[in-house]
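Exercise 7b. Backbone tokens:
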């Protein structure tokens, strides 16, 4: 999670927001949050929202990354409507911290997905071949069978990344930090990019 260190960059609200995010995530990890990188991912298809948890696998000036199956329900949502919202909750920080990220979503370049896939445990790599994520599973034995097939197929070498598995990048145009406080006197700091691409920041009533 690296950001350009220049003084100009440091003064830009977007860089300030990313630096704040990094700092909070590091504190959440240090505070022993059980799943600090877990985030709700909300997508919308035909006007109907769908939400599920995925894991953040990096955030930098390009955006917030996660990995999944490109034929899953969430991928179908994103094919139809490339906008998403992310939501983190870190209960152990202060009186609770929430971070909300919204933006357009794009697929990561194959090279990035290859690089991340190569770092995954072999069992997860085989699982990516075996799972038809979000498709009906008529019989759990069918999944075990597909896993065994993948094991046999790649028994003698590395497991390549399936082309149906890879990463997405949420390119933010809005990042909100919500800091819980006693008596509901919460603080909300919003960073947003306008149509001209200029980032500004401000506060909201809780
Ligand atoms: C803590 C946690 C982490 C998860 N991380 C991921 C992830 O990084 N990628 C993923 O595809 N699914 C992940 N899942 C499973 C998703 O929540 C979801 O069940 C799955 O992606 C199918 O969603 P869909 O049918 O809406 O596409 C995770 C679930 C939990 C509870």
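Sequence design result:
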């Amino acid at each position: 999670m690296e950001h350009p260190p220049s003084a100009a960059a440091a003064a830009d609200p977007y860089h300030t927001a990313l630096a704040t995010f990094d700092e909070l995530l590091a504190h959440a990890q240090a505070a022993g949050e059980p799943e600090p990188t877990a985030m709700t991912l909300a997508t919308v298809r035909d006007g109907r929202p769908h939400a599920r948890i995925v894991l953040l696998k990096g955030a930098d000036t390009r955006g917030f990354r996660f990995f999944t199956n490109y034929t899953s329900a969430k991928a179908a949502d994103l094919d139809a409507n490339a906008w998403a919202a992310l939501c983190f909750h870190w209960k152990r920080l202060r009186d609770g911290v929430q971070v909300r990220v919204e933006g357009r979503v794009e697929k990561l370049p194959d090279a990035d997905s290859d690089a991340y896939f190569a770092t995954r445990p072999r069992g997860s790599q085989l699982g990516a071949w075996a799972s038809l994520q979000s498709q009906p599973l008529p019989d759990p034995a069918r999944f075990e069978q597909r896993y065994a097939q993948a094991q046999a197929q790649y028994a003698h070498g590395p497991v390549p990344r399936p082309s149906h598995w890879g990463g997405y990048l949420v390119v933010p145009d809005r990042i909100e930090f919500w800091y819980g406080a006693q008596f509901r006197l919460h603080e909300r700091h919003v960073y947003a990019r306008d149509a001209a691409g200029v980032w500004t920041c401000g506060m909201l009533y809780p």
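Instructor comment: The chain has a mean pLDDT of 94. The helical segments are 7-11, 13-30, 73-80, 110-119, 122-130, 140-153.
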